[in-house]
Amino acid sequence: MNIPAQSNLRHPKSAAAFTLIEIVIVLTIISILAAGSIYLLKGNVDVAKETRVEGDIANIGTQLQLYEARNLRLPTTEQGLMALVEKPTTEPLPERWTALLEEMPKDPWGQPYQYRYPAQKSKKSYDLWSVGKDGADGTEDDIGNWKPGATK
Question: Could you tell me which of 71, 108, 112 has the C-alpha nearest to residue 93?
Fold first, then answer.
């Protein structure tokens, strides 16, 4: 039996790499999808910031209740929320003061929370609010303890 001699036929190798055009097309598609995702998530960031404000207002409100329980009164508007961090130096001076917060939090837009006692808008005895995204007090985007959902 004769075994046929192997021929020296060469089989062309198939290309195993991507071409530059294919890579550019894939990167373009990925960029378009990423840009669309970022656009859709932008609204969620605003909702998350508003939710954080509501949580901060509830937390500060709890600390104000504790301040009132210890000192039999809330801080005045002049003493402000800093009365939860530092002992007030203006009248009426609290007799049983303790620091209830290490530092006063700022809202997600970097603004301090606003406080007023006695209340003008809230059903509670004080008003507590964030000036919101625009940074201006008394505008439509203010978030305070007088709006439904701001404090529970």
Answer: 71
- The terminus-to-terminus CA distance of the chain in angstroms comes to 95
Residue of 74, 85, 86, 60 whose CA lies nearest to 119: 74
pTM of the model: 0.70
Position of tokens 């062309």?
Answer: 12
Q: What is the pLDDT along the chain (152 residues), one digit of tens a residue?
A: 565 555 555 555 555 688 889 999 999 999 999 888 887 777 788 889 999 999 999 999 999 999 999 999 999 999 999 999 999 999 999 999 999 999 999 999 999 999 999 999 999 999 999 999 998 998 888 999 986 544 44
- CA dist., res. 59 & res. 105, Å (int): 10
Rounded Cα gap, residues 90 and 54, in angstroms: 29
CA dist., res. 59 & res. 29, Å (int): 45
Provide the residue type at 117 as one letter.
Y
